[in-house]
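Entry 14. Structure prediction run on the chain below.
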Amino acid sequence: MDGNLFSDRSLVKRLGAERYLLISLVSFAASVIVTRLFLELTGYPQLGNTTLHIAHVLWGGLLLFIGGLLPLILANAWIYTVSAILNGMGVGLFIDEVGKFITQNNDYFYPPAAPIIYAFFLLIALLYLYLRRPVQQTPRQLLYQVIHDLGEVLDHDLQPDEKAHMQRQLQEVIARAPDSNLELLARELMEFLDSESLRLFIRPPTRLEQTRRFLESLRKIISQRWLTQPRFRLLLASLLAISGGARLLRLLWLYRQAHLDRALADLFLRTIESGLIQTPRALQWAIIRLALEGGFSLLMVGAAFLLARRSEFAGTRLATISLVMSLTTVNLLVFYFDQFGAVVTTLWQFSLLMFVSLYRSWFMQNGAWQT
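Output returned:
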């Protein structure tokens, strides 16, 4: 036995944490968008009477409570997925009414409410990206994951690939174990998995697995036959040029009209009358928004030009920078002035970012660009 063992209560990331967080993120975004759309289409109905008003923040709190309670009561692995969905929906319904919480007159349509909701969404997205980063796991973390996966034995659902994965993890623990306790436990678990009497469950692929295999085969067909690298590069360059060029043309038109018939001044006047710009500082932020939109739109057009010139590394990098900066900075101001009308623009920019990421994963892995 090691004589220098000490208690280790350091944090260990749960297996599949990034997947659960992604589920919560999607549920959160969907609940906010669907709630706002439903209220807009139905004329903002209220559930209650002359005395009571059952706001949807209460339903959000209820879903949050249930989502947090389930993993405290049940040990099944699938319960974390249910909890992630309920937590995402709950926080979406809760934060959708943030305007009421931060104003004296309970103003649901308070202009800064939309940027606050969007900023909260971005923080969760950044946490998701942080959890996805590749890191070397310690032997203790690997054993936590193996013990988690042993639940498949209790559920009579241990697959051959799951067994092989656990064996690889245990071999790494044995090779790197910092103390005899971890090594002893790893060897005992390895002996258990190597036992000939251990029964594996060979089941047909689930619908999700079939879908993944189908999408992978479809990806190969698309990338090799239809959307080859030159075609994909041209499509991506065109989308970036159209997206950035359209916004630049809009800004140039506003600038030109401002000199011809003061249309830009009239636009600011209408915005002031609507209550969105109430102070000179707010007017300054509106001007900053237009300047940032123009700058990042110019970067998108530059990225399209680089891709058209087959400078893929520089083009995709510039496109990523422009889209990420637009999503994380410009859109905070857009949501303030346009409220939730900016959802479509945000979804379009996010889709473009996913296209850039898809191009890099298909054709630029390890720097081996196909031509």
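DSSP finds 15 helices and no strands in the chain.
Filed with the rest of this week's runs.
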